[in-house]
Amino acid sequence: MSRRTNPFLPWLASLAAWPALLAAATVDDAALVRTPPMGWNSWNYFGDAVTDADIRRTADLLVSTGMAAAGYRYVIIDDGWQGQRDAQGRLHPNAKFPDMKALADYVHGKGLKFGIYSSPGEKTCSGYAGSYGHEAEDARTFASWDVDYLKYDLCSYRKQLVGKPLDEQTAMMKGAFRTMRKALDATGRPVVYALCSYGWGRVWEWGGEVGGNLWRTTIDIEQSYQSMMFNASAEAGLEGYAGPGHWNDPDMLEVGNKGFESPDMQRTHMSLWVLLAAPLIAGNDLAGMSPATREVLTDPEVLAIGQDARGVPGRRVQQRGAIQLWARPLADGSVAVGLLNTLDHATTATLDLHALGMGSSVSARDVWQHRDLGPIDAQHVFEVPTYGTVLLKLKPAQASR
Ligand code: GLA
User: Fold this and answer.
1) Looking at ligand 1, which residue's alpha carbon is closest to its atom 1?
2) Which of 39, 41, 144, 273 has a Cα at 20 to 30 A from 216?
3) CA neighbor of 52 nearest in space, from 109, 133, 123, 106
4) How far is the CA of 152 from the centre of ligand 1 (A)?
5) Is the CB of 221 under 6 A from ligand 1?
6) Which atom of ligand 1 is nearest to the CA of 251?
7) With 0-12 CB in 10 A as exposed, 13-18 as middle and 19+ as buried, what is 284?
8) Is position 95 within any domain?
9) Per-residue pLDDT tens over the stretch 81-95
């Protein structure tokens, strides 16, 4: 969908005899995110106080903690890096980021990717300079820094929408997002494009059409169980809009941040994000990360569900009182299932195999516990901790001989 032609192609084509080179000279951003992107973003922990030193230290820690090896590759500076425009209109970083290209080189030198943030409005959400009227210039600046990922956040562009009919608002948002996509493409550099409009205008219906590789479906996540559940629940019913190259984004992870120290809550947050096929953009302070948080963020079996090659997001199958059942079909024919307890005390729950479309008996693996449970049926009782989740991989049980 977002395979685009490199602007230099006509010139290259005039050289006629270079078919192999021509094949390589296309910008295919969707290919960069065949599975949901994984990385780290500065906003949830550092806010707009983030500095060059924070980013360098985070890049170091992504590698030394094993997060990078687990798949967290994009290091994204959110709001707060921008300084002033010069007489030519070029936007410079503020004093906290003395040399953005050198910082990008440092991040790339660690084998990681480098991401940045801007807005189609005149101002970003924290009041820094946005890209309005300077899209082409800013895209060229980002390309000169070797940026690999852009989060583009509506922010003050919203002011221009006030009082307009809804369909006009949507058309304007589409136009604003498309303008930056075109500007990025014109640089010839592949850039993952993350749209942020908090779900406005039902962005999931047109985010891919305007060249987005992911789009925020909701308001900002906050550091509470309720906020995390709200954002996850808002994606129930949106699963048909996402797939390889274009993903629904319920916002960045709070795992390891204030309010999310409880391992059971952390596991629920991660379970939902991998079941939803959500981007996994960590937002915690890696310097202060506990071993338990690291384990939750890097669990290989859990991340394998999130990065499953089939790329089909899960859906909420059932809500029975305080128990929710979510399921995601996987490439190997098995089904990842989350059994969630939304109560503030532990409880027990059984699986509705019929609602899951499975036979009367399945073979189950407890994913967080890395343990095969063998064949189970609808009478099998699971203990689900406070605000916790049992994450399972289910396969139809082998027919007995
Ligand atoms: C908005 C976005 C957040 C963050 C802030 C930065 O609120 O939704 O994710 O980028 O802006 O100001």
Assistant:
1) 125
2) 144
3) 106
4) 10
5) no
6) 9
7) buried
8) yes
9) 999 999 999 999 999
Nearest CA to ligand 1 atom 3: 220
Nearest residue to 118 via CA among 12, 50, 229, 195: 195
Work out whether strand 113-118 and strand 149-153 pair parallel, antiparallel, or are unpaired.
parallel
Ligand 1 center–CA 276 separation, angstroms:
21
The residue out of 254, 272, 306 marking a domain boundary is 306
168 with 240, same domain: the answer is yes
Same domain, 116 and 243: yes
Report if pTM > 0.85. Answer: yes
Residue 274 CA, distance from chain mean position: 10
Substitution candidate for ligand 1 out of 43, 216, 231 with most atoms within 8 A of CB: 43
CA of 125 to the centre of ligand 1 (A): 6
Residue in the structure block whose two tokens are 């002033």:
84
Q: Does residue 243 fall inside a structural domain?
A: yes
What is the domain range of residue 178?
11-306
Q: Structure tokens of 30?
A: 């969707």
- The 8-class DSSP code of residue 64 comes to H
Q: For residue range 114-137, list pLDDT tens digits in order.
A: 999 999 999 999 999 999 999 999
Residue numbers annotated as active site: 153, 220
Query: Phi and psi (nearest 5°) for 275?
Result: -65, -35
The 3-state secondary structure of 320-355 reads: ECCEEEEEEECCCCCEEEEEEECCCCCEEECCCCCC
Q: Give me the number of domains the chain comprises.
A: 2
Scored b (16 or more CB within 10 A) or e, 10-40 reads eeeeeeeeeeeeeeebebebbebbebbbbbb
Look at residues 282, 306, 330 and tell me which one is the last residue of a structural domain: 306
